[in-house]
Write a structure and sequence with these properties.
It is a single chain. About 70% of the residues lie in helices and about 0% in strands. With about 60 residues, the chain is mostly helical. The protein starts with a helix and ends with a helix.
Length: about 60
C-alpha cells in the first residue's frame, strides 16, 4: 500500500465520520464528484494537492 492509498483510505474514513457523500463534498469543495470517486476507488492514483487539501480541511 502506497501513500496515495493511505490518503484515500483516510479520506473515506473522514467522509464516513462526517456523513458526507462525494456529491456533498463536490458542493463543498468544487472538486468534481467524478474526480473524488475515481480517487477513492483507486481508478486513479493521483489527485491535485490543492483539491486534496481543500477536501481534508473541510472534513477535519
Amino acid at each position: 500500500m502506497d501513500f496515495s492509498d493511505l490518503v484515500a483510505v483516510r479520506l473515506k474514513e473522514l467522509m464516513t465520520e462526517k456523513d458526507i457523500t462525494t456529491y456533498k463534498l463536490q458542493d463543498l469543495t468544487g472538486v468534481y464528484n467524478s474526480t473524488i470517486s475515481q480517487f477513492l476507488t483507486r481508478k486513479t492514483k493521483t489527485i491535485r494537492l490543492e483539491n486534496l487539501l481543500l477536501s481534508v480541511k473541510l472534513l477535519a
